[in-house]
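cron nightly-structures :: item 1 of 1
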Amino acid sequence: MQHLRLERGCFRTASGDPVYLIGANFWPKSTGPFMYRAAWNPAAIGRDLDELAALGANAARIFCFWPDFMPAPDSVSVAALDRLEQTVELCAKRGMWSIPTLFVGHMSGENWPPPWADGGDYYADEPLLLAQELLARTVCAKYKEDPRIAAWLVTNEWPIFAGSTPEDRGIAWARRVCAAMRQVDASHAISLGDGAWDLAWGNETGLPARRLKDVIDFFGPHFYPKESDPARQSLVASFCMRMSAPLGKPVLMEEFGCSSDQAYDPNAADYYRTSLWSAFGAGNCGALAWNSHDFDELARQRPYSHHPYELHFGLIRVDGSRKPQAEEFARFARYAARHSADDWRPQEPSVAIGRTSYFLEAFPFDWGWTKPELRDLYLQTYALCAQAGFEARFVDLEKLEQGPRPWDEDSIKLLIVPCLQQVTTGDAERLESFVRGGGTAYVSYGGEPWYPDLGRLIGARPLIRCGLVEAPMRATLALKFVEPFGSAHTGDVLPIPIRGELRRTAYLPCEPEASAVIAVDDSGRPALLRRRMGAGSVVFCAYPLEYYLMHGTNPNAGSDTWRVYEALSHAAGAFESPAAPSSGLQSFTWTSRHRAQRRRVLLVNHNEKAVSVRFHPALEVADAESGAGVKHASALELGPKEVRVLEVTAPA
């Protein structure tokens, strides 16, 4: 094994070669979390790890089950440390780095505190903090500079185990524990293992990512989505990667997966396929499935006896046979091992979804959109981008740069700010600066405005009545274009079902002053306006289009809202993939660092139906996995949930 360091956005060997970590969360299938107290059988554990390694895994996340590691607050079990060492060595012999997790008190639907610690405050009680420091120093010192270790995780979903806490207390705790680890081992990267739930879900746990970024080395989202819309469900993996990226740290997809009790295995394979590949396209540095094996032998033991679906999250069944999702894992692992970050430069999307400061920051007396609601809004907006056939990233408005930079192909051309309500004055200033610098900003109405002088931004006088809203007059909005706009033509009508709570569905009546009307509603009132501002423009929608799609079952399939986004991307000149856009198709592009005319294109079809993909006939197209040339690339078809990676070469 070569020692790994986290540098230039990914894990790298001592010689500087990039490594994409691909593996699984691992417990032995015969013992689960009780591997440190059950009869020890290294041969059986080795066979489990053989099965995981055979899938192409190069990493395994392993766990220090806290009650077994610390029988008393002032001692660490020598026997548990010995079993941990044997597990690390068993992984290494199979070519897999270990990612140990230190404080494992929560596991699979139950909390398991050390018997001497139950009821204390893990963030603030000094005896508990001293015990945590002891375990952290003991384990980390044992593996200082050890090439078999890829990285450390401090906890497993700590907010579930220790509860939420005030921010200052949570950050002080994280700093203290991570400092103890680095005092004895500064050679390995550290992350918290908390799940990054404020980024992935909008949860406030007292461990905010905006402050953790100065404490840890990478983020590790955990997600098990339960959605009412297939498009959103399929996009959660890449969404979580994109939501984490603005904080400037690498992102490891630390936990994802599904139980065979809750998903038909062929459908689970579809989920694995789209999740693995789209998260890779969104720029993560590795992926760990939950989990490697099923646990049928533990059916009568807690936590599995009361959470029996937890028995069957495995890629591999107890008899050693592979589930369909394991085959998808193996296919992806083969490709990830060959794709070098040093050979291929990712192309950043020129479309960004703008997050207001109210998503990551905690402000007093915030009575607008809650953080979980904003998270759901951003996911729906991201889904609309995919429905419109283009990929988007996220940007925090407070860090938005002043307009597109012509010399920078990674700069933002189109900014989408959905359902705008809460903003800070700093957000507003950066938004307007972006537009004046030449950018296009799309802003939709999100309720009683907080924006300072909204009329100046949109070029229209808001006709708001104090404390009242203007409810839509019909169950379906007929959005009619009255002038050409991007891919939309004069006379085009888009039917958009209106759903949601009455006040939130409200539109903003307004009177154009310095803006042109692009589209009107059923009654001829302005619905979509364009305001020229400096070198750029603001496109304002008087209806909260994205909010309507956050309600009902399969709402994206029954709405033409995505065509507004399609028109926006064309109007802003923001689509740059070699493949022509297709609804529900994600397209990720890399450029060769050695041959500028060669690009690699990852296509992920999130639809439950086939889609057609078109390349310019002059392009030479080959399959990047097999190396075979692709005939008829000008009319390529991708089946439902299918993924293709293509190398596209332009004529010299």
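cron nightly-structures :: done
The chain has three domains: 5-342, 351-571, 585-649.
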